[in-house]
Amino acid sequence: MKYSILLCALLLMSCVNQKEGSALEQTADIPDKSMTLWTGKTELFVEFPALVVNNSSRFAAHFTVLDRHQPIREGSVTVSLIKGDKGIRNTVQSPSSPGIFSPTLQPKEAGNYRLVFDITTPSYNDTLIIHDIIVYATKEDAIKALGDTNATGGISFLKEQAWKIDFQTAPIVSAEIYNVIHTSGVWLASPGSVKSLAAKSNGIVNFAIPNLTEGALVKQGQLLLNLNSKGLSSNNLSTEIAKAKADFDQVKLEYNRKKLLLESKIIAKSDFEKVAHNFAIAKSNYETLSAGVSGGAKQIRAPFDGFIKSINVVQGDYVNQGKALVSIGTHQSRLLKSQISPSHGLSLDNAEGMWYQSKEGQWKNVKESQGSILSIGKDVGLEHPLISVFAKVNAEVIMPEGSLTQVQITMGDSRQSAIVPVNALLEDYGNYSVIVQLSGESFERRPVKLGKRNGVHVEILEGLKVGEVVVTKGAYQVKMASMSSATPAHGHEH
User: Fold this and answer.
1) Contact (CB, 8 A) for 226 and 315
2) Are 258 and 400 members of one domain?
3) Which candidate, 133, 193, 151, places its Cα nearest to that of 334?
4) 338 with 471, same domain?
5) pLDDT-wise least confident of 24-33, 121-130, 253-262
6) Would you say 80 and 89 are in contact if contact means Cβ atoms under 8 Å apart?
7) CATH number at residue 407
8) pLDDT tens readout for residues 264-306
9) Which three-class secondary structure state does DSSP give residue 457?
10) For residue range 313-332, what is the model confidence (pLDDT) as tens digits?
11) Domain match, 177 and 235 both
12) What is the C-alpha separation between 191 and 334, in angstroms, rounded?
C-alpha cells in the first residue's frame, strides 16, 4: 500500500514538472519585453515574454511607491488585456517578493490591445495603462517583429538595489525661473520671538531646573524658578497676600452692602461708584499677588516653547519686583537681514521671493513658512554703500543669532524653462551631469548645461527634455555601478 501511494505521488510530480517544463518551453524562445511608466504615486517597471496566442506569459511587475521610493509590500494586482470591450484578466493577491507581482495571461486572439494594471494596497489604489500591446499569432511572428531583445544599453541598476538605499527620482518639469541675486544674510531675533521674564514679587531665587543654562530647551508652561520670601521680616510674599486678601474681603463686604442700598435707591449712584472703584483695585491686587503662587513661592514659567536665551540671576539671589530674571527665545520666527548693491534695482514691486539655507545646508523658501520680504532699503551713503533687505521667516531656524547663511533673492519677470532639483547634479571639476532613468532598471549619465538657480531648483539649458526622469537621491550609487565591471545578479522571477 505504501509503495502504491509513493508511486502515485511520483507520477503526479512528474506530470506537474512536465506541465511546467512545457510552459517554459513555450516561452523559452519568445523575446522579452520591458516597459516603464509613472503616475503621480506609482512607478511600474514590468518585464514579460511577448504575448503570443495560446502561450502563457508570466509578468514580473515591479511596483514602487514614488514617495520615498519603496517597494509595495502588501496588496493585490489585477492585470487585464483588453481589446474594445472584451478581454481577459488575472489577479494575484500578494507579491511574490517585496515589490514584485507575478500575474499570468494567456491570450486567445491576435491583435492590438491595452494592458491595464490595477494595484490595490492598504494605503492607496492606482491604475496604470499601457497602450498598443501587440498579441502575435505565432512565436515566429513575435521573433520576427521584435528580433533580439537581449541587448541592453545604459547603466544597469536593479530595482532590488534601489529599494535598499535612500533613492528617489523626479521628472523634469517646466517652471518659472527668475533672475537671482546671490548674497549672504545674518540671522536676527524678530519682534516677539524673545520675551524677558521679570520678578513679579520680591524674593530669593530658587531654580526649579538643576543646572539651567543658556541654550537649554524649555516647554510652554514649564516651571523655571521660584521666588521664595519665607523667613523674610519684610517684603514677605505670604504676608502681603494675607494682607491683600483681608483688604479684598473687607472691601467686598462694603461693595455688596452698597450695591443693595443702590438697588433700593437709598444711596446715590456716585457713592456706589467710589466703593466699586476700591473693590476693583483690591480684587486686582489680591489676584495679582496670589497668581502663580505655590507653597508660598512665586512661580516663573516659560510662556512658550523655546530656549533659554539669557540668565540674569544666580541661585540664592534676592531680587526686587521687576528685576529681569531670564529671557526666553524661540526658533519659530526670525529676521533675515541681507545686503545687496543698489545697482540690482531691487524693490518690493519686483522682488519675487527669497531663499536661504538651513542648518542642514538645504535651500528653503521664505514663502513656504508664510514669511515675506518686509522691507528694502532705499538710501545709501559713503559709509553704507549697500542697501538692506529684511525678511521674516516663520519657521524653525536652529542656527544661532548672528550666524551667516547663503541667500538667493529672486526678482524681475520670469521665463518658462526646464528645471531639475539641485541635489540631482553630479559635479566633476566644474562640469555637471545627471543620472537619467531610461527605463525601470536602465540609467544613463548625461552632461548638462546649467542656467539660473532658484533655491532648490536649477535651470537646464542643454541636455534634458521635459518629461524625462532623473535620479535625485542615490545618483552617486548609480554612478559607481557604471564603473563596476561586474554585472549584478538579477533577482527577478519569470
Assistant:
1) no
2) no
3) 193
4) yes
5) 24-33
6) yes
7) 2.40.420.20
8) 888 888 888 888 888 888 788 777 766 767 766 888 889 888 8
9) strand
10) 998 898 888 899 999 988 77
11) no
12) 8
Sequence-ordered list of residues with C-beta below 8 angstroms from that of 263, at least 6 positions apart, any chain: none
Is residue 305 one of the residues assigned to a domain? no
3-state secondary structure of 297: strand
Q: Do 274 and 396 share a structural domain?
A: no
DSSP letters along 279-327, please?
A: HHHHHHHHHHHHTTEETTEEEEE-SSSEEEEEE---TT-EE-TT-EEEE
Check whether residue 116 and residue 173 sit in a common domain: no
For residue 298, tell me if it sits in a domain: no
Identify any residues that bridge with 308 across adjacent strands, giving them in sequence order: 328
**pLDDT one-digit tens code per residue, 101-136:** 999 999 999 999 999 999 999 999 999 999 999 999
Asked if the structure places residue 184 within a domain, the reply is yes
> What is the rounded distance in angstroms from the CA atom of residue 79 to the CA atom of residue 61?
10
This prediction's pTM: 0.68
Give the chain's length.
Answer: 494
How many beta carbons lie within 10 A of that of residue 389, not counting itself? Answer: 25
Q: Closest Cα partner for 198 from 56, 303, 77?
A: 303
Task: Let me know if residue 159 belongs to a domain.
Answer: no
DSSP category for residue 103: -
For residue 141, give its domain range: 22-151
How many folded domains does the chain comprise? 3
150: its cell numbers? 537581449
Are both 338 and 440 inside the same structural domain?
yes
- Mean local confidence (pLDDT), 74-99: 96
